[in-house]
Design a protein that fits this description.
Blueprint: H1 9-14, H2 23-53, H3 60-94, H4 103-123
Helix pairs in contact: 2-3
């Protein structure tokens, strides 16, 4: 039985071809994925908390919009983390260069914008 035949159908579909990478690299990729999932869950929890307890912070319509945006950011981070995990794992299997991190610049920009909004709210 070949190495590819010993893998499940799901593994063959998610990660076609290539050879098994060093487990340390696979596990490091998985830890990074889980860290991004933790970040996504924090965004989703913040959006829910803002909607549930943010009555005095914003007008109700604005509060709902901000809550939905924060939850949507969490969803985007989770989906992007899954896609990144797969791209990195495929690169490891093919001994190819790792893909550039597309999510990091977007998250950094979002963090700067959010900090600016918080500063503006505190100063006004």
């Amino acid at each position: 039985m070949s190495a590819d035949e010993s893998r499940s159908r799901l593994a063959q579909w998610l990660l076609p071809g290539g050879e098994e990478p060093d487990p340390r690299f696979t596990l490091a990729n998985e830890r990074t994925f889980l860290a991004w999932i933790r970040t996504a869950l924090a965004f989703i929890a913040a959006g829910v908390a803002l909607e549930a307890f943010g009555d005095e912070l914003f007008h109700p319509g604005l509060r709902r919009a901000v809550s939905l945006i924060v939850v949507a950011i969490g969803l985007f981070i989770a989906l992007s983390a899954g896609a990144r995990w797969r791209r990195v794992e495929n690169s490891l299997r093919r001994h190819a260069p790792l893909p550039p991190p597309a999510l990091l610049p977007l998250l950094a920009l979002g963090t700067v914008l959010a900090a600016g909004v918080v500063v503006a709210l505190v100063l006004t």
